[in-house]
Design goal:
Length: 327
């Protein structure tokens, strides 16, 4: 492996990886799998966010309509950008992240509706502007194929954690700027692919949504990494984004479970509970129920199974002193 990107493994990165692994563990239980509706919503948020970062003004409702095959009033270019993103994210799990052919095919699917050079490396010099100021001059076009080959070779050979490799690749892609257009969305797309190959849950997470929410910082960290010739701050930033996305997704799934995976009876039980512990008799009285087996079957046990209610004495589930409160 001849090329080694400039970064170091900081204590912060190690701590972030540990925290992300912990969140992933919480989302890997049977009740952590998002419903089809939440998966669809996350995909739409992903597409809307990655395009909004690049200036696309279509709303979530408009993109939802396009996903559902409905006609939408809007800029033809912006609609074409959405259609390209839909194709690319649908194909995402089928690609090999270290394949040059797949990499170019992804850019073609993403950009072919709006760019004649889709799927081909740029032939001219490009730079990144902030207003009147040039903040990054990309390497010469003639070096792009070689630089991308080196980067993909590094990705294939590197023993670094996928969380690190995906962030490094994201940054390096933005630095090389291999295409005339679409580099930002390709960087975010390919990071998701690398993460998804490690843990398929990442195919369902709208990481791009939180990047959009911190768009100014995202660009600033890219600039800072350029100036310092050190990718470490960008890795730390992206791991923060990933961790926050996992926490948000966990919250969304709890709401999703209440609305889609548990009954109205469980919702009624949650509505009459607070932070204190309650006995079965107290809960039944508050619900105006008199049949204990019905209460346990339709209210208490589903709530416990979904992790929405917890026991005071979990090591003694049948204790006559057992009490329950909302998790």
């Amino acid at each position: 492996m001849s090329y080694k990107p400039p970064f170091s493994i900081s204590a912060g990165i190690i701590n972030q990886i540990s925290a992300i692994a912990e969140q992933l563990g919480r989302l890997s239980n049977p009740f952590g799998q998002p419903s089809p509706q939440l998966r669809k919503q996350n995909r739409i948020r992903t597409i809307q966010s990655t395009l909004a970062i690049e200036g696309n003004s279509l709303s979530l409702d408009q993109i939802t309509a396009i996903v559902e095959g409905k006609r939408v009033l809007g800029s033809p270019r912006e609609i074409a950008e959405v259609q390209g993103a839909i194709r690319a994210y649908e194909a995402l799990p089928t690609w090999n992240p270290t394949s040059m052919q797949d990499f170019l095919q992804a850019h073609y699917l993403l950009m072919s509706n709006i760019l004649t050079e889709a799927g081909k490396f740029r032939k001219s010099q490009v730079g990144i502007h902030k207003g009147e100021q040039i903040v990054h001059v990309a390497p010469p076009a003639k070096r792009v194929p070689h630089l991308m080959a080196d980067l993909l070779d590094w990705l294939k050979a590197s023993k670094d954690h996928a969380l690190i490799k995906s962030s490094v690749f994201h940054y390096e892609l933005e630095f090389i700027h291999p295409f005339i257009d679409g580099n930002g969305r390709m960087g975010r797309l390919w990071q998701t692919l690398i993460l998804g190959q490690w843990n398929s849950l990442f195919y369902l997470l709208p990481i791009e949504s939180l990047i959009k929410d911190q768009q100014n910082r995202y660009y600033q960290v890219l600039e800072d990494a350029d100036r310092a010739a050190d990718i470490t701050p960008f890795i730390e930033f992206m791991l923060d984004i990933i961790h926050d996305t996992l926490i948000q997704n966990s919250t969304d799934q709890v709401s999703d479970q209440v609305s889609d995976q548990v009954s109205d009876q469980v919702q009624q039980l949650l509505n009459i509970m607070d932070d204190q512990y309650w006995s079965v008799q107290q809960l039944m009285a508050r619900l105006r129920l008199s049949h204990k087996p019905t209460f346990r079957k339709n209210y208490l046990l589903p709530a416990l199974k979904a992790g929405l209610v917890q026991m005071q004495y979990p090591d003694k589930p049948r204790s006559p002193k057992q009490r329950y409160k909302k998790s």
